[in-house]
Amino acid sequence: MKTESLLLILLLFFSSSCVKKEAENDSQSLQKESLYTQEALVAMLDTIWVTEQLPIRLRDSLGRVYGYESEEFNEQNEIYHKNHDVNEKKILKLLDTHGWPSVNSIGESGNLTICNVLQHSGIEVRKKYIPMMKKAVAEKGLAPRLLARAEDRLATDRGELQIYGGQIKYYPQTKSFDVWPIADPKNVDKRRAEIGLAPMAEFLASRRHPLTWDLEKQIKRTEAFQMNK
User: Fold this and answer.
1) Cβ 118 vs Cβ 95: under 8 Å
2) Which InterPro entries match (predicted)?
3) How far apart (Å, rounded) are the C-alpha atoms in residues 88 and 122?
4) The pTM is what?
5) Does residue 150 form part of some domain?
6) Residue 110's CB: how many other CB atoms inside 10 A?
7) Which residue, of 16, 54, 134, 143, has the fewest CB within 10 Å?
8) Cβ count near 191 (within 10 Å)
9) Which residue segment(s) compose the domain that 82 sits in?
10) Could you report the per-residue pLDDT of 14-24, keeping only the tens digit for each?
11) Does residue 10 sit within a domain?
12) Is 222 within 8 Å of 182 (Cβ atoms)?
């Protein structure tokens, strides 16, 4: 009888401990989730989109009118960078405390906002969040094209050949834009098709400021790039 009573006391103790632990975990989970309700998260991302993208568009418009080294361009560029610093802090806090948000909560537009802010951040920041982006892609929560864009941007900033051809750079020596050199340009359209991207010719023609895709020219640019490394 004493043995049975002792076992009962022990079972009650462990049961109570487990319930308490589960309650603590649930409380912590709720606290974490309450930091970003769906409505608040969507509103925050909408605001970030406007304050991140509109200054860029105005800056680029001023660059086309007055030149990309003009005072007008530089002043607007400063405004953009100040906005970006604020937006980056918000996005990094979100990712560090919550992980990559569910696409069901923020939609494709929310994903694009997060990716754009990361895209405008420094190399070390972008490197840090590539694994999180890969995980989101694997879980069908992020479009592969956004990961491809991030990886191409990282490659260009490291002075390496890009894979998918999405990065366009301004070349001061020619005062014009062109595609950053691409690895194996002959097969770039095949790689793009595998992740749902349009062919290079179509992609470049659809830009706000269209460019022409010249495969032979890009092959030569890639060869020259590799020779100069």
Assistant:
1) no
2) DUF6624
3) 10
4) 0.73
5) no
6) 20
7) 16
8) 16
9) 38-142
10) 434 443 443 34
11) no
12) yes
